[in-house]
Amino acid sequence: MNVHEFAELSAGHALGALSPSDEQAYLAALAEHPEWAGIADADTETAAALAEGAPPVSPPLGMRAALLRAIAADPGGDAEESPAPAEAFDDDEVDATASVDVETDATVAVGIAPEASVPVEAEPVEPEAVEVELEPEASAPVAPEPREPVSPPTEVVQAIERRNWSRGLFALAASMVLLVGIGWGTGAIANLWRTPPAVTALEQIEAAPDAGVAQTRFEGGTATVHWSESLGKVVLVADGLPTLPADRTFELWYVRGESPISAGTFTADGSAATAQLTGTMQAGDTIAVTVEPAGGAPDGKPSTTPLFAVSTA
To answer: N or C: which terminal CB in the chain sees fewer CB atoms within 10 Å?
Structure first.
């Protein structure tokens, strides 16, 4: 963990918003790097100052009405009333069943009569069909219509918490507030977000226990190579570079014995540049820079004499 990652965790710790895993990482980093205690102390003091100066915030206007509706709701009342239609249905069903039995008896009685009277007496059996149609209506109260929940479901609450208190978004907001609180301007914050990857890699290398550095001078400037074998990163810092036309660029090389290996291209900001090399450096490599056509050497080999070469042996 580098100092910038620790600063993010320190900001979250000062506001009491770290997850258990981040809190453990914060404490472990602080124990490993006691020199970072000043950052933690500054964040804690700033968070306290912000809390004292924060104006009171009124609750949302609709909160009171929502609470009153929730209190007025009586989930148990509907449940107690729902069996009533079922009981009424049971009485009707008994009556209807009795009527069907009567009609059935009548039919049986008619069956003893002469054949001519059978079609006339068989028609009253129709109430059985009517009883079948009543069954869906009677069963309706068994499945009452769903009621709106009194309180939000758990998954909704969790989603809101994840949205509002996710570590990434909180670290962004907390870091900006703390930086402004300790006197950083908006320009400094903007520069922080525009930090090039090569500069970040250089800071990581300088903090690594196996950091290596080599320097050389060339006509009009100096070139310094920083590397860390454990991180697998190499960064060149050069000053005094010549100005190139639009169709030219600088190209980096690992010179390994007699074989140059391309390590990417870069441009200069004025006469200065910080560039991270691609590929993997081996012990004893020499780092060289040439001027090539835009996009790099066409055949993968240097086409010009190196501006300088830095030995890492």
So the answer is: C
Distance separating alpha carbons of residues 18 and 47, to the nearest angstrom? 14
CA angle 81, 83, 84 (to 5 degrees): 70
Q: What is the pLDDT of residues 206-259, one digit of tens each?
A: 999 999 999 999 999 999 999 999 999 999 999 999 999 999 999 999 999 889
259 three-state secondary structure: strand
Distance CA 10, CA 18 (A): 9
Residues whose CB falls within 8 Å of the CB of residue 308, separated by 6 or more in sequence, listed in order: 216, 217, 218, 223, 238, 288, 289
CA nearest to 266, candidates 201, 204, 208 = 201
CB atoms within 10 A of CB 282: 11
Q: What is the pLDDT of residues 8-53, one digit of tens each?
A: 888 888 888 889 889 989 899 888 888 888 888 888 888 777 766 6
Q: What angle do CA 281, 285, 290 make, to 5 degrees?
A: 95
d(CA 151, CA 153): 6
Sheet containing strand 221-228, strands side by side: 211-218, 221-228, 233-239, 272-276
Amino acid making up residue 286: T
CB atoms within 10 A of CB 3: 15
